[in-house]
Amino acid sequence: MEALLGSQPDFKNVAQAGSLAEASAQVAKFKFDLVVLDLGLPDGSGADLIADMRRANPQVRVLVLSASLDPAGIEKATRAGADEILDKITPVDEILGTARHLGSS
To answer: What is the pTM for the complete model shown?
Structure first.
């Protein structure tokens, strides 16, 4: 995802994290407008990070992009404040369109 978003001229300061701990560190260090987050991370659920991000930066928009779209995970992410949830098999143009829409909101 970092390569895809980073190749787009309208996305700036793109970063990538491979774990919940790395994502938490990135979010604490930078004030992102948009975070694209997976639910299935090796050290926990991405949904657990959403509420923390919202407390630190209420303006952040969250796009969950995950292959793990079980109903319980979707509900948890929604309750935590995810703005949009897409499956990883969603066409790239739709992912970019959703990211652009959320990033400009």
So the answer is: 0.89
Q: pLDDT tens-digit profile of 26-71?
A: 888 888 889 999 988 899 888 889 988 888 888 999 999 988 778 8
Report the CATH number at residue 98.
3.40.50.2300
Handedness of CA 88, 82, 103, 9 (dihedral sign): negative
15 in Cβ contact with 27 (< 8 Å): no
**At 66, is the secondary structure helix, strand, or coil?**
strand
**73-96, pLDDT tens digit by residue?**
899 999 999 999 999 999 999 999
Extract the runs of DSSP E, i.e. beta strands, from 6-50: 34-37, 40-41, 44-45
In the chain, how many domains are there? Answer: 1
